[in-house]
Each structure stands twice: as structure tokens, then as C-alpha cells.
Amino acid sequence: MAGKLIVRMAELTIDPDQLGSYRALLAEEIEASVTLEAGVLSLNAVSLKDSPHQIRILEVYADQQAYEAHLQTPHFLRYKNETAGMVTSLALIDVEPIMMRGKP
Q1: Matching CATH number, 6-94, of 1.10.10.10, 3.90.1150.10, 3.30.70.100, 3.30.565.10
Q2: pTM > 0.90
Q3: Cβ–Cβ contacts within 10 Å for residue 86, how many?
Q4: Which residues make beta-bridge pairs with 7?
Q5: For labeling, which of 9, 17, 79, 96 is most exposed (least CB within 10 Å)?
Q6: How many helices (H) and strands (E) does the chain have?
Q7: How is the chain split into domains, by residue range?
Q8: Per-residue pLDDT in tens (0 to 9) along the chain, 104 residues
Q9: What b/e sequence results for 31-66 when a residue is b if at least 16 CB atoms lie within 10 Å of its CB, and e otherwise?
Q10: Beta bridge mates, 6
Q11: CA-wise closest residue to 53 among 13, 9, 10
């Protein structure tokens, strides 16, 4: 997988009344994406400590092709469709990695 890493930060606001359902769907989608897609290098979701309905997801893809392929997968499309009414705002921010390191 040659090419430039694609790294994005997704900033979402979720309807607080649907937060439990949203979190379950998000966890299912992340698990499927990382397990089934070689080009999805990592997906890490967190919520703001004092605002649990504010979600941040750091997404790392092998390259642009891997990102575009991810958007067409059945598990991503299911997540997108089933959470559409739960997400009250979404911003996708392209970021440049400075240092990203983890243990295998």
C-alpha cells in the first residue's frame, strides 16, 4: 500500500438521548473496519470528559484509496445510515501527523 497516509479527526455531536445506541453502533463499526480492512490502520474514538455526547475519532488510513474504499463498505454504510438521526453535527478535519506511535 504505497501512498501518503490519510489522517483525519472527526468531531461529532450526538443527541444525548441516543448516546448509548450511537456508541454501540460506533464500536461495532470500528471493530469491523479495523478487522476487515487492511487499509484502515487505526480508528480511535473518545468522548469529552464533561460532555460525553461530544465524540472525537482519530482515523488513520494507509492512503486515499483505502479511505475511499472504507466509505463504500457495508459496515460503514450501515453505521452511517443507522446513526444519521443521532448525529447533530459532524466536522471532518484533515490533520498532519507529527508523531504517532503505539505498541503492537
Answers
A1: 3.30.70.100
A2: yes
A3: 20
A4: 60
A5: 96
A6: 3, 4
A7: 6-94
A8: 457 999 999 999 999 999 999 999 999 999 999 999 999 999 999 999 999 999 999 999 999 999 999 999 999 999 999 999 999 999 999 999 999 988 87
A9: ebbeeebebbbebebeeeeeeebebebbbbbbbeeb
A10: 61
A11: 13
Q: What is the greatest pairwise CA distance in the chain? A: 43
At 12, list the grid cell.
461529532
Q: Quickly tell me which residue has 472525537 as its cell.
A: 56
Yes or no: say if 92 and 8 are a contact pair by the CB < 8 Å rule: yes
Side chain identity, residue 58: L
Give φ, ψ of 61 to 5 degrees: -120, 150
